[in-house]
Amino acid sequence: MNRIGLIVAMKEELNAALKEFEVINEFKIFDLDFYECKYKDKTCILVQCGVGKVNAARCAQILIDKLEMDCIINIGVAGSVSKYVNIYDVVVGEKLVQHDFDLKIFDHKRGHIPNVGVYMDCDPYLVKLAKDIKIDSKVHLGTIASGDIFVTELAMGEKINNKFNALCVEMEGAAIAQTCYLSNIPFLVIRSISDSPNKEANNHINFDDFVEERSKVSVQFLKQLLNKIK
User: Fold this and answer.
1) How many whole angstroms separate alpha carbon 86 and alpha carbon 138?
2) Exposure of 37 in the CB half-sphere (CA atoms within 13 A)
3) Per-residue DSSP letter, 117
4) DSSP of 73-113
5) Are 122 and 95 in contact (CB under 8 A)?
6) Which residue in 13, 94, 172, 212 is the catalytic one?
7) Under 8 Å CB-to-CB from 225, ≥6 apart: which residues?
8) Cα separation, 189 vs 13, whole angstroms
9) Residues 16, 19, 20, 21: what is their CA dihedral angle, to the nearest 10 degrees?
């Protein structure tokens, strides 16, 4: 795996990554800016996809079809929906689920996608490497839930946790997972936690103010992972 696609959703996440990688080339495909970076013996193509599942899936397919990635890694921030996962922790996705995908009217479980299933497993090799990484923050392995909803209500977070045993929620990872799954490309999703239901609502850390700071945690985790990938 020497050609690795790196997808982030937001400008703050992109800025955190650009500070840690040497950019050797910049180019545009459609309206997206791609940054070719060298990291030791690896070529990494970094791109900001934009928020939401459609943007994320579109970006992943471009990386696969036009830039021939060996694998795709999605990094960024997420909100915890587990009482065991706190701010600054890192969640490595063992599997992804689209919590807002609902075909129950056709007798499918919530989250079930035809020809895919409910859960999409991240690449076992990448998960195994990530499992052994040690950083200052606590690292969790488990399910990451994605949906085109910014989850702010504690009750909704609890519902997603109970339904899917999810550790955190965000808006892109499962769409990237589905695109990679259908294209037979290894993938991994890594999230650092920006907010947590363990705090009272009026004490929540402001997401916009701290997203870049939280993003630095996932970038540092990513660099250690890249050191291990062969």
Assistant:
1) 9
2) 22
3) B
4) EEEEEEEE-STT--TT-EEEEEEEEETT---GGGTPPTT-B
5) yes
6) 13
7) 73, 126, 129, 130, 133, 188, 190
8) 14
9) 110
Q: Which of 12, 89, 172, 195 is catalytic?
A: 195
Cβ proximity of 84 and 165 under 8 Å? no
Is the pTM value of this prediction over 0.90? Answer: yes
Domains and CATH numbers, the chain: 3-228 (3.40.50.1580)
What tens digit of pLDDT does each residue of 184-227 get?
999 999 999 988 765 544 334 455 556 767 788 899 999 999 99
Closest-CA residue to 43 (of 94, 4, 88): 4
* 13 annotated active-site: yes
Answer yes or no: are the C-beta atoms of 81 and 210 closer than 8 Å: no
Q: Which residues contact 226 (CB under 8 A, 6 or more apart)?
A: 4, 39, 40, 42, 44
Do 187 and 177 meet the contact criterion of CB atoms below 8 Å apart?
yes
Parts of the chain with a pLDDT under 70: 197-210, 212
Annotated catalytic residue 41: no
Both tokens of residue 175?
Answer: 């769409």
93 forms beta bridges with: 142
Check: CB of residue 156 under 8 Å from CB of residue 179.
no
Give the C-alpha separation, 26 to 23, whole Å: 7
**Can you tell me the distance from the alpha carbon of 93 to that of 91, in angstroms, rounded to the nearest whole number?**
6
